[in-house]
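Troubleshooting entry. The earlier prediction with pyridoxal-5'-phosphate gave an output that would not parse, so I re-checked the input for stray whitespace and re-submitted. Clean input:
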Amino acid sequence: MNNHPVLRAPGFLYRDQELHCERVPLHELAAQFGTPLYVYSATTIRERFRAFRRAFGRARHTICYSVKANSNLAVLRLLQRLGAGFDVVSGGELARMLKVDRRAAEDVVFSGVGKTADEIAAGLRAGILMFNVESESELAVLARCAARARKKARVALRVNPHIETETHPYISTGLREHKFGVAIEQARTLYARIREENYLDPAGISVHIGSQITDMEPFRQAMLRVAELVRQLAADGHRIRYIDAGGGLGISYTGEDDFPARAQAYAQAVLAPLRGLKIHLLLEPGRALVGPAGALLTRVLYIKSNDHKRFVVVDAGMNDLVRPVLYAAYHEIVPVAHRDGVRRAEVDIVGPVCETGDFLARDRQMPMLSEGELLAVLDAGAYGMSLASNYNTRGRPAEVMVEGAKARLIRRRETAADMMRGERK
Ligand SMILES: *Cc1c(COP(=O)(O)O)cnc(C)c1O
């Protein structure tokens, strides 16, 4: 029984030829809750959070989990109990945090290039830690909202450090041509403006250079530029207390993932350029904490051949997991019932949605599959459910959190009635 593929996701492993999440057999979850189904390992999230925190050791820091990676309330609650802060990018995400715990707002940073005045006002009311401001115009709106609320807003400018990253173009954010942040050369002028405002406190600097970055050098380069800016601003008479290094630490979708080592290397890259600065560091990991903690369970509906191509039609589609078509992302897909030594064949694994882009894998070597069997799409804990849609009026999947031998439904499957709520005929 030892020919099982080694799965990197530590929460997902074969026992007696059956894929489990922690101690729960996945076929039992599929029988109980149906498919497609997102399954998360609480232990994996907890271990990754702790490894990340350990990597930053005694450096003064707060880990502000990026809510958009996976915004289920149970995931947020779990991380909040571990001591996480949060990075939100909308009024909706802020509302989630307030639902989890009113006091959680104290450790919330608000990012995003298009905050509305209403969203800003909500952030002020909640008393969040800091606004990461992305333009001069947003600064003016924030100043107006803060004055009206008579609340001083802590501000970090999100600077664009012009750093190249080797990631998918849609998730690279640190170049001049991207819509994010303000050019780092403009920062000194803008901090001078912030200081003139009675209700703005120029507290920090933030950067976020992109997502799924596995080379540590770009992080180091970005921090070198930020450290230089902090020194320039100090010379101008500003005292910057917070540096927000953003998120972006990548995970391995294909191979071994020694996360503690990876987190250490990342912490090194971020911390080394900041040596000697008296600042509180904020970090905004999303994917790195939750990606490998989740799998999408799906059932094979049909197997068909057109010409020489073989298609495995499953019940999960691009509306459930859009990453393959949106980012050309690779997800390992494995049968829940493992058997040794079976023949393999090249197949496309496709969903039921009426789009050619509706695939989970293309030209993939898979063991011979049969109709009705269960597959697990691994490393789907980040940007899976949070990007799910109702396209084709398909209800979004249910979500289950597993801890040890216990499984808990943390979001029920969406029904047709849920989807039509709010519409009028
Ligand atoms: C998306 C995002 C993150 C999280 O990115 P990951 O790659 O998931 O770590 C952090 N900060 C900001 C501003 C973001 O937009």
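This one parsed fine. The longest helix spans residues 217-235.
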